[in-house]
Amino acid sequence: xxxxxRLLSIGLLLLASPLAAAPxxxxxxxxxxxxxxWFREAKYxxxxxxxxxxxxxxxxxxxxxxxxxxxIMYRARIPVREYEGLAKQWNPVRFDAEAWVRLAQDAGMKYxxxxxxxxxxxxxxxxxxxxxxxxxxxxxxxxxxxELAAACAKAGLPLxxxxxxxxxxRAERAGNxxxxxxxxxxxxxxxxxxxxxxxxxxxxTGYGPVALVWFGHxxxx
Length: 221
What we know:
Elements: H1 2-16, H2 30-42, E1 46-48, E2 59-60, E3 63-64, H3 72-75, H4 80-84, H5 97-106, E4 112-117, H6 144-155, E5 159-163, H7 188-205, E6 212-215
Parallel strand pairs: 1-4, 4-5, 5-6
Antiparallel strand pairs: 2-3
Helix pairs in contact: 5-6
């Protein structure tokens, strides 16, 4: 019992000692703070979730699928070949980027974020890194992000992009174990080099000033 008491006393001393305390937070980076100043001041913005999942709109083969709509492929265990068929239906001819920007400004919003690539790996911009995009895979054949970037630039509204890595519907196959093997057998390094990094580079170099980029989690929940 005495030995246990000594161990307990030592443990309490260690917990109370400076050695066990969390390390102090690093001082703020002035350059980073300057870059983020506009975002902290803006406070109110528009976050657009849009993609192929807007077509089924939470239902698959006449049955509702629980959960948020952009996760429908994962939650309904939709085979890749079936899900890819949605691209052939994607033709939002009434899309008007300038109308979207006016709506945001009329509501007092100070910036726009859009899902340039979401959970299913489908890109709303023309990409040389993958044909799984709005220009190459759909009858729409228009670069949604390019039109929105131009409208935002015209109105002086900052634009931000999101990119989810790696997505469910193409070579990376993250989270898709109903069509493919477990994730620990997949080559995510190859995905990172051949698709994720090139697409981030495309977003940062082909669409004018990008206010910020949101990165999603690396695999399906």
